Here is the input.
Amino acid sequence: MANGTKQITTSDIRKKKEAGIPITMMTAYDFPSAKLVEEAGVDMILVGDSLGMVVLGYDSTIPVTMEDMVHHTKAVTRAAKRAFVVADLPFLSYHGTVEEGVKNAGRLMQEGLAKAVKMEGGQELAPLVTRCVQAGIPVVGHIGLTPQSVHQLGGYKVQGRDLEQAQRLLEDALALQAAGIFAIVLECVPEEVTGMIAKKLDIPVIGIGAGVTCDGQVLVFHDVVGYASSITPKFVKRYADIGETIREAVAGYVQDVEKRSFPAPEHVFRASEETIKQLYGEGVATK
Here is the structure.
């Protein structure tokens, strides 16, 4: 369990890399999940646009809007008093002008109360990253498998398997670091490539499906606890199956209601004997 309520900062996160202490990050999309994740001691909470699939039922992250992200970020930041909250900029919210991207990033900070934003892409985002940092908005990069570009990438595939791809990932990471990001997520990248990039960068590298050679790990809350998560990627370790527990609990409720065994006497409120007599007349049993 986490000790104390001191707010984790970007400086704390950088110091963990310097000290060789792994960084823990997990998604949360609402108040109760964020509360539980924080109480468990996670360093960083990601309000991911993965909420599109995990919470909203879409088949990709692409339909997620700025309004969705602001709404869910608000809920998470109400619960997170210690963990560092990062919110995703959703599809097309930062691919127009730099001014538009900064404005949307600012919304996640000002309205959602996030401590930083995350954006998917490589060196083409450098001007936007620089402008966000100048405006006081901390930025986390995201390269490798970028779900917002899944159709362009041809599906959810491992990135960086060959030398050319690996070199491009390193170039992107270095360019984003130079632009001012304070951390970067590598998704679905071979472990050897991850290790090479992590050694070349001064900033923390947080992996998801990127092996153990990085500076930290991030996973989706629902995947980790088995909460209505039907697909378990190779890189996920499931630590519980609360979905089955919930199904059993609700099925038990349905059965009890149908048998009229719920509510039982201990769940019922009683009127006074005088009120019952007035309602039903004399001679009515009150027990």
